[in-house]
Amino acid sequence: MQIIFNIFLNIPLRDFQGEVAALLAAGLWAVASVVYGVLGKRIPPLQLNLLKGIIAIALLTITIFVRREFFPTVTIVPLSLLLLSGIIGIGLGDLAFLAAINSFGARRTLLMGTLAPPMTAIIAQIFLQEKLNINAWCGILLTVLGVAWVVTERLPDSSGSSSTQLWQGIGFGLLAAIANAIGGVLSRAALANTSIPPLWASLFRLIAGVLILLPLVWLSWRRGRIILSELQSTRVILTTCFAAFCGTYLGIWLQQTAIKFTPVGIALTLLQTSPLFIMPLAICMGEKVSWRAIAGVVIAIAGIALLFYLR
After folding, report:
1. Rounded to whole angstroms, how far apart are CA atoms 224 and 208?
2. Mind giving me the DSSP string for 240-258?
3. Nearest CA to 118 among 97, 140, 138, 94?
4. Residue 238 to residues 13, 112, 305: CA-CA distances in angstroms?
5. InterPro entries in the record, alphabetically (predicted)?
6. With contact defined as beta carbons under 8 Å apart, do 21 and 199 qualify?
7. d(CA 196, CA 187)
8. Over 70: is that where the pLDDT of 59 sits?
């Protein structure tokens, strides 16, 4: 990868490690989102969010011991920001995202997710004074338009949803986008001027995200809404572990790397390109890809190029 960057782009990879991490995370989230869409038909969003969080925490803890990354020196303010970021972005945001998928499908939910980058850039500009030049704003706009162009395409096998499901999906999708934006800004504020490694930042956020879910799980248990039968299936457990490994463990680790080394508006834009990575998966699964979808990819890649070259 380093050789490709040096030969064809004539720029060192380390100068864009945040952008590369964001694109890798987006690709992993694309794979995980396909799996979560299948799991969501058998496991409710609350249980699925809790389960994937616990698995990712275990994997991150093992990684920390293997890498011998001892507890970092961290003051109360950055730690509080990371924990709050986990509560909002992972605990509540991922819960809303999974609920939106169940309400009106992955394509529309991904469309709602494209609202996060401009929200993030505006919030960061107000609270972090992260000024983005006109080229960066154009890159954000092109990327969002390209992704939106892809995910809003009407699919031949799409079925109509009820009005209630539609508005529930819009509400959950909007909540997920807002939570993603706020969580990203809080993470950036905690990591920008500190020495907290992305690995530990990911662990702090996940722990906070899981802890905030426990009272909700307890209430669901009291009301008899917890489903345990599906968790007795080996296939379901292994599939959940795979999705958690790709989308939560590696995905959030790469996300924190991107946020630490890249302005949060740019990082969140690149992190929202997951729909573009789903297209090769769709082709492999035998789905037809239209010229409109291809045009959306071209537009989004043009936006990504602006973010890389004209930052």
Report:
1. 25
2. HHHHIIIIIIIHHHHHHHH
3. 140
4. 35, 29, 37
5. EamA_dom, EmrE-like
6. no
7. 11
8. yes
